[in-house]
Each structure stands twice: as structure tokens, then as C-alpha cells.
Amino acid sequence: MIDEVYLDMDGVLTNWDYQIDFYNARKPTGKANWDKVCKIGAKFWIDMPWLLEGHDLYLGILELQKKYNFKLGVLSAIFSNSGKRGKRYWLECNCPEINQENVIICNRSFNKVEHAKPNRLLIDDKPENCADFVGAGSNAILFTTYKEVLHKLEEKLKA
Question: What is the pTM of this model?
Fold first, then answer.
């Protein structure tokens, strides 16, 4: 039985691609220029816009939470303390329904699996994070479209 649902932030709730381009913090390889992101500090995360589908997903999950009464949290990753502060502040301002006690921000994305439990489900945009979570005996849904994720989530919550 799933009674805890955790959302990733970057690429699920928030528009990482927009923000990285807005601050011109993308290397020619397409990867993030972490030196630049770290110099921007917490502001990089605080000012990040919603991903349009992410906002729709969040609103839909709040409706499902009323129906199925599960704990809602965030499982995200950033190695810098300013990034952790920025993400927490963003959540306080944009997702006040999520209790800060249910926010887990690990140092690296691959550390998310350490929080896998049989009763938890992770919604993430990275296939490897979802695969790791499932491989550890937990549950995951790969974020594609908000409608598809909401449908899959409700099916899993009904089971």
C-alpha cells in the first residue's frame, strides 16, 4: 500500500531548463555550469518558475491527496547549502500544503534511493532515479505529462 508520495523538484515541479538558460548557466555540452549556479546562490532556486505541467500535476495531486489521504513530500537533490535553502524557501512559498518535515533534500540525485521504502512512491523526471527506487523495493512513476502521471498515481493508490 502506498501512503507516501514524493515529488522531485527540478524538471517535475520547477522549470530547470528555463532557469539554467535565463542565468546563462549552461555549458556548451548542455550540462549545468555549477560554478555559475553556486555563485548565484539561493536566488537561483528561489526565483525558479513553475514548470507549467508541474503546477498542473501538483494541483491534481492535492486533489488525489484529499481522496486517498497520503502523506505528500518532496525528494530532491542539490549539493550546496544555498541550493538547499533556496529549494526549501521555494517550497514554502509555492507549495504551502507540503509540511517541511516531509521535504528531503539529499546531496546528489543518486542518493534518493536511500529514502526508498515499500510504502513510498517517487515521481521523478530521471529514468535512473525511478529505476533505482523500484530496484530498492519502492515505487516510482517517471514524469512525462501531468495527465499520465495522475492517471498512473491514482491506479497505484487504488491497488
Answer: 0.96
